[in-house]
Write a structure and sequence with these properties.
Helix content: 40-55%
Distance between the termini: 39 Å
Radius of gyration: 18 Å
Number of helices: 12
Strand content: 5-15%
Shape: elongated
Structural class: mainly alpha
Order of helices and strands: HEEHHHEHHHHHHHH
Largest sheet: 3 strands, mixed
Number of strands: 3
Strand order of the largest sheet: 2-1-3
Length: 234
């Protein structure tokens, strides 16, 4: 699985970038994403600075580095476009608060963005996606069981997103959204997801609302990395 391969690439400590100038080097790389091979042309310096996944791929020792191109046929161009936009803007849009089809689609998109950022080893974007997801849920939107199953099938066991959706589900099952266990744990559910929910319900009499956690509770930082929240506050 691509996620397991990406986990072998250790993300280097990255300080939050406020000026892109030094990273906008003349050299560009071409990324062909999805089965339709949608092209994204990105500044190599900017891409490799933020992503250890691409930094390793384009360091010159591999075919991608020599040719300046890479094929990612299993990835979705929709969240990938958000990744590329974030590289240049350093921000992502909020989830609508209306609770309609657009909001649910945005929640799903945010989960996909987190999973992709995790694969590409971009902690800052991953943490932003997590915070965006929590704010979207606080505004009245709900995550559905298929998204929880997707998270467990696309991330590793120690993923903060796994921990979040398990706690969110267990919190819900304690009566907050009047959801039944069978709506989450069914024949389509991931076995580890079901185990984590049951374990949480068995060991905790009252589960705190995970949508409003303490700072960085569901973030992931490397040694020496400053959280984007601290950098944006200065």
């Amino acid at each position: 699985m691509a996620q397991e391969a990406a986990s072998e690439v250790m993300e280097k400590p990255v300080n939050y970038v406020t000026h892109l100038g030094p990273l906008l080097t003349p050299e560009m790389v071409d990324l062909y994403v999805g089965p339709g091979r949608q092209l994204f042309r990105v500044h190599k310096g900017l891409l490799c600075y933020h992503s250890a996944f691409f930094d390793k791929a384009f360091d010159g020792k591999f075919k991608e580095g020599q040719e300046g191109m890479m094929y990612l046929p299993k990835d979705d161009p929709v969240p990938f476009e958000i990744v590329v936009t974030w590289l240049y803007r350093q921000s992502i849009d909020e989830i609508p608060t209306t609770g309609d089809v657009e909001a649910y689609a945005s929640l799903e998109q945010t989960v996909d963005l987190y999973i992709l950022a995790d694969k590409l080893c971009i902690n800052t974007l991953k943490n932003m996606a997590m915070d965006r997801l929590q704010r979207g849920l606080l505004s009245g939107n709900r995550i559905i069981d298929t998204e929880c199953t997707k998270v467990y099938k696309s991330t590793l066991a120690d993923s903060p997103l796994r921990r979040f959706v398990a706690r969110l589900t267990a919190w819900d099952l304690q009566g907050h959204w009047n959801t039944k266990l069978s709506e989450y744990v069914n024949e389509e559910a991931d076995l580890d997801f079901a185990k984590d929910i049951i374990e949480l319900l068995r060991n905790r009499s009252s589960i705190p609302d995970p949508r409003n956690p303490s700072k960085c509770e569901y973030h992931e930082h490397t040694d020496g990395e400053t959280c984007y929240l601290e950098k944006s506050a200065t």
